[in-house]
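Researcher: Please translate sequence to structure tokens.
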Amino acid sequence: MLIGIISDTHGLLRPEALVALAEAEHILHAGDVGEFAILDALAAIAPVTAIRGNVDTHGPCAALPPIEVIELGGRHLFMLHSLHDLDLNPKVAGFSVVVSGHSHRPSVQRHDGVLFLNPGSAGPRRFRLPITVALLTISASSVDARIVELIS
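Model: Translation complete:
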């Protein structure tokens, strides 16, 4: 199963992000959506699961949940906007993947058998950080992720 992961759009959905996520079977948005129309545009590609971030304080995005637990491809994923708010042990809780955003820094790391994935920011550039999304591939035997740079 191919899962597209995007975060920190801050109201800007780049055409390059839509191209990068075009083959996804499900899309996760890890918060700081900015405009609900972004979720509608992503839903034209695949089903979307989204959480709110710290900028989603009013309007329709404020109604998004702060965390989400989802099962995709037979694996359990935990979504939260800021990894600093993680208040559980994902391995003990049975999660294969923790998806976060907030930092605008793309990252793929494994800790204690759990994949920690931050797709970086697909919205307005922050400092000199790249503009990125991530693709997560789940199979019966593995969970792998890669960062896709949209604009260097």
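Researcher: Any highlights?
Model: The longest strand covers residues 143-151.
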